[in-house]
Amino acid sequence: MSQSPHISIIMPCYNAEKCIETSIDSVYRQTFKDFELIVVNDGSTDDSLAILKKLADRYSGLRVIDQPNKGPGPARNHGIKDAKGRFIAFLDSDDSWHPDCLSKLHRALQNNKDASIAYCGWQNIGLEPNRCKPFIPPDYEKPDKIETLLRGCRWPIHGALTRKSAIDAARGFDEQWTSCMDYDLWLRIASFNKIVLVPEVLAYYHHHDGEQITKNRLRIALNHWRIQLKYLESHPEIAESFGKDKLKEITNGELLHKAYVSYWKGDLATSHHLFRKLFLMGHFKTKDIKYLLPSILPFSLYRKLITQLRHEPHAE
């Protein structure tokens, strides 16, 4: 590997002793070899750091940074600060890549010199079969690009390669966000820079015992909504271009959709919180009232009522 690697891969690590070696192995199986891997140990309390030190002896180009626990956003920013490559890729310590991931994303950026991000398809691993189907995100380079991005940047953090200059211009990750920090960064970069789709599944998102499926749904929904609002506040010309009704549909309407998804998935804690918030904001139509009105009850009564309604004959 050269002294100045072409790509810097940044991997935050927190208590990942069971999976860190598998993720790092997927990095060193890449067909594109001109990279460095920066692993930021974010105050792990298990054997992650000891494992990383052993792996650093085995793999060239692997650097380990040890810091007190600050969260994944600050850990990634620490890695960005130390990165030497012209391009940045992110990989979490429990996820993996197809061997051609870096090669194909890098080629896309080389073939599109005016693009700042190359992104790809991805696939869940470890969920029920109907939730592990390959997914290719849309091509965002269309007239409704900003609206589509506001609704969601539908590629995971490890499903993209980004020019470091674009990340530096965006000042990296906003550390106030404990989730959706990648959405915030992609939105800020992709809105004003060309991005290019590689329509292949090259990134794998690993789920372990389903622990992430419902636990963070409320936080993710609210942070996504808050990021939308902050972005629109920072760019009033974009907000004005949509008009008030369209703007509410993109922001509050998306939040309402997530409330319904939570409701039908049986995540009543999330649906209760979101329905109540939207009811108090006045964002609903007549057909929504029968779902939103019960949310003014305390959660224990809400859960009891919804459970009873669902078990009644002919209940919706």
TrEMBL record:
Span of domain Glycosyltransferase 2-like: 8-135
Protein species of origin: Methylotuvimicrobium buryatense
Protein name: Glycosyltransferase
GO molecular function, one term: hexosyltransferase activity
InterPro entries (alphabetical): Glyco_trans_2-like, Nucleotide-diphossugar_trans
Pfam families the record matches: Glycos_transf_2
Taxonomy, superkingdom: Bacteria
